[in-house]
Design brief:
globular, Rossmann fold, 7-stranded parallel beta sheet, 7 strands, alpha/beta, 38% helix
Length: 186
């Protein structure tokens, strides 16, 4: 069982910390169907390469907001990499304590597994609020020096997170699905 820590307990070096942002499965090609969508598999391959590039640049800590889709897939990549390289750490930042109540099936299974293997789990709020996702995104950006973003629509929470990162002038690696439509369609 993961132990939830407070926001001010972040214990990693921001200079070597990278966070993720991206859309929920239904906002991506193939509606999140990794098995049947070649386009989504391409996106995830590029995401994995972006993570490996960040590690080669010296990043050791990776923050996931633990939402279905890109957050959970990226966190799963970090879990797999950590198994071979224990210097690479996953930090899960939860917008509120009951986040997992909105999950089911494989997402819930992955969520619980990732919490259990995370180096740190930070929970920002006791309860859901209309601003808790934005607060989570701001926290991740404020505690990172790099953002890896998978974006299809800039008028979204993902787009807002990219703008937060631009304002902080942190490094941004963007995988823009909308500009690469030809390679990201089935």
């Amino acid at each position: 069982m993961a132990v939830f820590e407070k926001a001010d307990d972040f214990r990693f070096d921001i200079k070597t910390t990278c966070c993720f942002t991206g859309h929920r499965p239904e906002k991506l090609p193939g509606d999140g169907d990794v098995v049947n969508s070649m386009a989504l598999r391409r996106i995830l391959s590029i995401l994995r390469l972006a993570i490996e590039d960040a590690i080669n640049e010296g990043y050791k800590t990776f923050i996931s907001g633990m939402a279905p889709g890109i957050d959970l897939w990226a966190a799963s990549f970090i879990r797999d990499i950590h198994a071979k390289n224990p210097d690479i750490n996953l930090v899960c930042v939860l917008p509120y304590k009951g986040q997992k109540k909105s999950l089911q099936g494989a997402d819930l299974y992955d969520y619980n597994l990732l919490l259990d293997c995370a180096a740190q789990v930070i929970c920002l709020n006791d309860n859901y609020s209309s601003s808790c996702m934005r607060e989570r995104n701001q926290y991740m950006v404020d505690h990172s020096s790099k953002l890896i973003a998978v974006v299809n629509n800039y008028r979204s929470g993902t787009g807002m997170t990219i703008n937060m990162a631009k304002k902080r002038r942190i490094d941004i690696r963007t995988i823009d699905v909308s500009k690469n439509h030809a390679i990201f369609t089935d």
